[in-house]
Amino acid sequence: MEKKQITNWFIRFIKGVFIALGFILPGVSGGVLAAILGLYERMLNFMAHIRQNFKRDFAFFLPVGLGGIAGIILLSRPLEFLLVSYKAMVLWGFAGAIVGTLPALFKESAKKGRSYRDWIMFGVTAVVGGLFLYNMTAIFGQMPINFFSWLLAGALIALGVIVPGLSPSNFLLYLGLFDPMLAGFKRADMGVFIPIAVGAIVTLVSFSKVMSYLLQHFYSLVYHFILAIVVVSTILIVIPPVADYSGFNMTSVIVSAILFALGIVLGYWMSGLEKKYK
Question: What InterPro entries does the record point to (predicted)?
């Protein structure tokens, strides 16, 4: 391998490390980071036409994928520690990051007009979706941690790339998969990595065309559905049982408020980057 090829391979590896931030940090978009780093359009084309130039594109994205795995492992360690030691406060920071993206998402939802049907979709989704998510554990029981739950986690992470404005970490947190996922990433556990990768790849390949069709024919309805789910899931991660406020004091409240505010700034900044680069 020539020196230039080695350099390019390493550069794509480093880009993968940075893109990994968007896959597990709420309010940070992996798709936007990929766009900033000049990989988004080629990534989408690869997903939409997986058999076309497969060998060439696979070789191109291999170091990106390896960098993403390395970035996830590196980031998982400090993030797992923070969630174990200061979970409620960290969740308020996550919630702030997602709230910071809402103005851009709200504006995007009206890009092709807004009608009473869209508000009905928002209201019904918020009420029905919120009640369902809140009572999901009571209805179905605790989400088991197994191969199929990791497939679901991979699918949700992939949806965060191809569905505009959706933060999969909200659902992972609420389903109780986020913490064990981080623990598995930290251990570089292939029993976690492999099914998540399979779930993500299958979803990226199969759902990208479906999403394209829905946005083409039902743009406003789809965006108002997404907007309602984002709002509801953000509320749910900062109330019990996901957030545990035992031992909370005034210092904890102040720190949570600061993290929430910083999160809003981060989310708003990321939305600006999305508008500029995506």
Answer: VCA0040-like (IPR007163)
